[in-house]
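Thread title: Can someone regenerate the structure for this chain?

I was given the following input by a collaborator and told the matching structure tokens would be attached. They weren't. Posting the sequence so someone can regenerate them.
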Amino acid sequence: MFRLTRTTIILCIYTLSIMLSAPLIARELVVPNPIETDSLNSDSSFIQKMLNLDEIVITGTRTPKLYSKSPILTKIISSRSLDQAGTTSLQDALLDNVPGLMTDNNAMGSNLKLRGLSSRYILFMLDGQPLMKEGASGNVDLNQINIEDIDHIEYLGGAASALYGSNAVGAVINFISKKSTSKWAAGLNETNGSNDTKRLSINVNNNNRFLSTKWSGFRNSSDGYKGTTSTNTQYAYLSYGSNLSLNIHPSDYWDTKATASFFQHKTYQVIDEAGLPMDNLKRKLNTSLVTNLYNLNKSNILSLSGNYQLYDSYNTYIENKGHQQKSLESTIYKTELLDTWTPSKALQIVSGFGYDYKDIWSESFLGIIPTRQSIEESHAFAQADWNIIDNLTIVSGLRFTHNQSFGSSVDPKISLMYTLNQWKFRTGFSTAFRSPSVRELYYDFYHGPTFHIVGNHDLDAEKGKYYSASIEYTLGNFNTSISGFYNKIDDKIDGIYTMNQANMIYSYINVNKATLKGFDINTAWAINTEWLVKGAYSYCDAKDDNTGLQLQSNMKHTGNASLTWSPSLLGQPMSLLLSGRFSSPQQYESIEIDKETGKQTINSTDSKPYKIIKFTYTKPFKIGKQTIKLSFKIDNIFDFEDDTYNFPGRTYTFGVSYHIN
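Best answer:
Regenerated them for you:
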């Protein structure tokens, strides 16, 4: 059900008064920042912004670089794109912009899957700090991050363990926070949508010579929607969170950033493993501290960082009169010393070492009595970024990791970029690993009276080898790239079933191998300063090498496209966006063996292909230092629904925001 709150009504009335008086005050209007034409820059520089060519990226090398000069091909979801799309969650932002990505909603969070690989193979980061995995499948609840705090998103496909360690096997996704740039600013944002989905956030920023602060808080809720399967069902939920960031910069040679965030999410009427209804409550605390020291000419930067994350999960069983029972506690401690040395314009060397500690306490998952298990890991790495000649850049690196459970891993990487006029040629090789999780190592859980899940203390790390090559072409207002990839994963951890006299036992073993190969095409054309066309297509053949079958939930053909019109009327900007994403069917394959003849038969079931089309309208109004923005979005216009996808049907969202700067 769609409802308007008092805050929405007040802001709407204020906005309508501005709209009615617009012709009288047009001369006083200042063109706002997010989605208007830039009167201070030339058309060509504005088009560069539309194509993201002037964005600064950091994820590919751990050092800031212009996108147009980055030797590692990185996909950017810019603040402009997020704003024009009326994006209300990070999950939607990823699904709309990254082909091959899909989601299964469950009580543990956003179980995103990429090319048949679960969230366990994707490294999610916030400002370079890895986010804690929550569920057994590596879920990360992206609702813990307020999208109003995010400036842009960087997506790095493929293996990146040489820089980031475990889990960076299939992709790295880095959410980059906004910075405080104004002396002071404040904002209020509210959206209301179908299924009584509401999002409310507030933020306050301050910036002066020695100290900048940023605080935000948010509250999200939804009645959810009921599908025919758990895959296309979203449980009702209520969540809220807060984030505080302090940046101290007392001199040109020293700065310190401290952040702390709290998140609570309650999911209602979840069905547990035994079929009993319960409410699930989870809380998360995330704190970090980063200190940077610079030498006189800033050719050397020494950074010391520390990160602590705490995750708690509680179950409240309906039949137990609302008694709350703690089921899980997980903690992470991370510390790293990083040195960035730039001896010349042509050479930059990044090196560092660090220590990680992870532990899990569970009331029942790790044994019949409450038990705590832990893993320790240490690492050292170095990377050289060398511009050998004007047109050729080579990046090479090496990481050594020692893990108390599986031993050691050595992961090299090498990437090259050659520039020839409007052409950029990139190629690279890297290895990756995924450490066995605490659950995979130490699980000891009776899932009902006849089903026992058992961990394996002798698991090895999964290993990956990733090869890539790409060609990028830019001519004026047109940019396109095609990239090919080959990802070979060995010692893949999977579960096997065995029987003893009393129970069926599910245990983990390094049994599988997988090969993912394919290519991506990305194109953007800024027709002029008002019109932008973008499109992306991805082909991926993802196979289980043991069986020759497709990895479950892989979609061979995926893509997205968008058309944006952002004119300026009466000195006021606006934006109309028509966008969509499409996918070929998901393939579910299995092998059936005839008991008498031993003949193998491959059974294949396909889901429906899909096309999800959405329309978004955004309209900001600015008078002096105040900006009000209205947004309206229709998602899934043609009301596509299927049991195998997490789509609630056609939905509507209306948003209003107020900012003063």
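The helical segments are 6-25, 43-50, 79-84, 90-97, 161-164, 438-442.
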